[in-house]
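Board notes, transcribed. Complex of a protein with S-adenosylmethionine.
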Amino acid sequence: MELEIQGIVGAEFLHVPVLSQEVISGLAIRPGGHYLDATVGGGGHSRLILQAATDVRLTAIDQDQDALLAAQKHLAEFGDRVEFVLGNFSSYQYTPHSFDGILADLGVSSYHLDRPERGFSFRHTANLDMRMNQGQSLTAADVINQWDEAELADIFFKFGEERLSRRIARRIVERRPFHTTTELAEAIASAVPRQYRYGRIHPATRVFQALRIVVNDELRSLATFLQQAPPSLVPGGRIAIISFHSLEDRPVKHDLRNSPLLQVLTKKPITANEAELAQNPRSRSAKLRIAQRL
Ligand SMILES: C[S@@+](CC[C@H](N)C(=O)[O-])C[C@H]1O[C@@H](n2cnc3c(N)ncnc32)[C@H](O)[C@@H]1O
């Protein structure tokens, strides 16, 4: 099923939806219901939501123009049952009691990582960009080349959970300006001890995560979404959130649990089963939490 979806989207916006069966059953899609996909991406989850029951309507948000275009193509057959919204899910005008279910599948898509020119990956040489919203001005190059050493060390530590944040920041400041992803990755690798350089993950992984979070203001958008979205559910409506690292999962867990409007349905987060793990490496770190409006 997932491979078919991948085929339909084609090479333009390749993204296999994670935990798809768990999302669909967790949202308990109702015939005639109105759902919000706050991160439509290539439209993989959205398609499954639209197919899960009769006459489902969907509002689909993405801040990335390419993603929204891909989703429009992928979901064209559903016609005016889908409304597309280009924008950040944190600035969407949520109407109280309007959705039977909400999904957010956080972070970047595999499309972003696989498109060298978007500058998310240190595996390809590209401009240091990392913007999901191509209309914003702040890029990763601005942060790396203009922020002072202490600020860089701080974000690498806070948003990358990078232990060697200070020495990496020092090396970056010594060697900047940087223009490309690979130049930056090499400088980071040169700043860390040998054993760290050949560890389980590339030494630039955490710094790239931190930059991405900062450039896209990801944690602030998530915090706003967690406050604004639940009142837009109808009573009994469900919210499902997939996160990919602890900096996202922590506020999701905390805010769902502490919302006076919600009852959490997942004591522990749902994670991918063996079959999905074997098929889709991206599912490895995915955690799904679901709550229901009282
Ligand atoms: C993991 S992908 C979603 C993939 C999608 N579920 C699918 O099946 O194809 C995340 C998408 O959310 C978008 N996104 C991330 N943060 C966002 C935000 N704050 N507001 C709107 N879109 C956002 C990204 O541009 C990306 O396309």
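The chain has two domains: 32-111+218-293, 123-216. The pocket of S-adenosylmethionine is lined by residues 15, 17, 39, 41-45, 61-64, 67, 88-90, 105, 107, 109, 132, 221 (CB under 6 Å).
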